[in-house]
Design a protein that fits this description.
alpha+beta; 216 residues; 10 helices
């Protein structure tokens, strides 16, 4: 019998990285506990957590003495550990679609193209106080996000590919950096993001009780 998974996540529940892992766990219908990490007080810098998690960040999952950090690696681990047909697939069946899904996730997480937008539309502005008007650089990044999203979002479907995949939730989360701040988003893209926002696994993350926010 497998030991129960533990998800180590930020206590404010605003991390886009914790979001994708949480949604993946819910989609797989994996039983797990949550340990909230207080980043404000530097709990992630605790020597034991640093050693076990390897890099001292959230999210991190734990199963007994096995620990894994980095959200993309965790999602891949869950896909391998809880395969179809018993569990929901996180990636498309078609190998080209899978490649594009992974490309989108990697781009959203690591691209410098989006950095000005991420800085000015931090996830705190999605769940707490809204941000200020976008600077020219952030507006340029937002325009690029919209251009890329428009290339991938079909006009006649509700998902990026044939069925939902984790890239849908990840892209929608990024788009909501704009939507939740009242920034202009084309109708097709906004409709897509709002539809993805209603997925039960996503709603569970959105509706979690959040502590009063203190910048850290």
């Amino acid at each position: 019998m497998r030991e129960k998974l533990i998800l180590h996540s930020d206590k404010y529940w605003i991390s886009p990285y914790s979001f994708i892992v949480y949604v993946s766990l819910k989609e797989k219908k994996v039983d797990f506990d949550v340990h909230e990490i207080n980043l404000e007080t530097g709990e992630h810098k605790d020597a034991t957590y640093q050693r076990n998690s390897y890099i001292g960040k959230v999210p991190c999952i734990q199963r007994g003495d096995f620990w894994l950090s980095e959200s993309s690696a965790i999602v891949e681990f869950l896909e391998d550990s809880y395969p179809i047909p018993e569990h929901q697939a996180l990636f498309p069946k078609d190998f080209k679609h899978r490649a594009h899904a992974r490309m989108l996730i990697a781009w959203i997480r690591s691209s410098r193209d989006l950095l000005p937008l991420i800085e000015e539309r931090s996830t705190a502005t999605m769940f707490y106080d809204k941000g200020n008007p976008l600077s020219p650089k952030a507006k340029e990044a937002a325009d690029m996000l919209i251009r890329v999203a428009d290339r991938f979002i079909p006009s006649d479907k509700k998902n990026l590919f044939e069925d939902w995949c984790i890239a849908d939730s990840d892209l929608a989360f990024c788009l909501h950096r704009l939507i939740r701040n009242g920034d202009p988003v084309p109708a097709k893209i906004k409709q897509y993001a709002e539809h993805q926002w209603q997925r039960p696994s996503v709603q569970e993350f959105l509706n979690r009780e959040r502590a009063p926010y203190k910048p850290y």
